[in-house]
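Forum > Structural Biology > Help requests

Title: Can anyone predict the 3D structure of SDR family oxidoreductase?

Hi all, first post here. I have the sequence for SDR family oxidoreductase but no way to get a structure on my laptop. I'd be grateful if someone could post the structure tokens.
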Amino acid sequence: MIPMYPYYSYETRCRQVPLTFPPQHQDVQPGLEYLMNPLPISDNPEYKGSGKLAGKVAIITGGDSGIGRAVAIGFAKEGADTAIVYLYEREDAEETKRLVECYGRRCLLIEGDLRWPAFSAEVVRRTLERYGRLDVLVLNQGVQFPQESILDISNEQLENTYRTNIFPHFYMTKAALPHLKPGSSIISTSSVTAYAGAPLLVDYSSTKGAIVSFTRSLALQLVSKGIRVNAVAPGPIWTPLIVSSYSAEYVKTFGLETPMKRAGQPFELAPTYIYLASDDSSFVTGQVLHVNGGIMTET
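Reply #1:
Sure, ran it for you. Structure tokens for SDR family oxidoreductase below:
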């Protein structure tokens, strides 16, 4: 059992967040949040919604934990119902559903594998059956498998990374687009690695770069339909993907390379997704917003 880790030494306006983490590793991606120590911080109790997404419906892929959970909670506070898509992390997904419902909104859980095109059509169909509409598509699924050398990236790993991280952007968008109306929003999760690179994550970083190009190109294609397409590029964030992809030793110093000298927490990204989903960003499309602890990137 991992011992409790009580050391918190950086205080945001609303929460204390850890600077470092105890060594830990999970063997299966994309990881289980309920096994992490400390647990990621998904909710900012000081954030009060103002109806920015009232009556809207959002699909969030990878919404069971990490960034996706924080986005689902933030959307609920702003009045949106959600459909959460996850691979196998049922206990995490049930906790996200519970948290969303605590804020008075509905949450539909959909388990399945987004690497297969037919599943995207099922996700959209079930969402429409439950809610009767679709307004926001958040594409947030992802895996990463660090390798010291490109020579160590097997064909199987390469295909899995691309089929998970970028192919569903096409599958889900194609399934959702006929049901999106003017004012709708598509938001992807890219990464700081798309801009700064990452020597251990050549295949992962290249998929995140593809997401940037996907965002910019699709935005131009859909602007005449009144549908906005944007992305968020997080820096190091404390999520299950970290403990399921890196070694226990690496985890001990995760995030310390940022100018802020710490990793971010999922709740610190949620307002960016809310902004991009709401009318607050009505003149914003084809953009990537960087939430990365101060890492300088060329945009």
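The chain is about 35% helix and 15% strand. The chain has one domain: 49-291.
Shout if anything looks off.
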